[in-house]
What we know:
This protein is mostly helical. Helix content is about 95%, strand content about 0%. The N and C termini lie far apart (about 190 Å).
Amino acid sequence: MTGGDIAGLIAAGVFAILVAITAVPLWKLGRVFDSTSEAIKQASDGLTPILDESASTLREANHQLARVDTITKDVAEVTGNVNALVALTAATVGGPLIKLAGFTAGVRAVLVAGRTADKAGAAVGRSAAKRTKRPRSK
């Protein structure tokens, strides 16, 4: 064997040792990938029912929101109708009530004025009576 053959054998041996040293981390990395794949599969299996349930819940929530929207529209319509009814009632009953209140106030003012005049007249009459009851001086 020549010196070049020996150098080639040494180089081949070093290369084989280098491959053996790097094979161990590569083997461990392969197991990590296998574990990761298994974990992803388990997570996927666990998430599928959760996502299905979430989709079902979301569909039901949308259905309920549609019902609430209908109820809200109906309430708005009823509110508008009540507002119109109140305006109609105020126009129908309010005008005559205002006139009645004015008439009542007028009658009251007349009655109060009559009483005041009666009291004033009575007072004048009493003072006149007092004057007539005085004896006349001779």
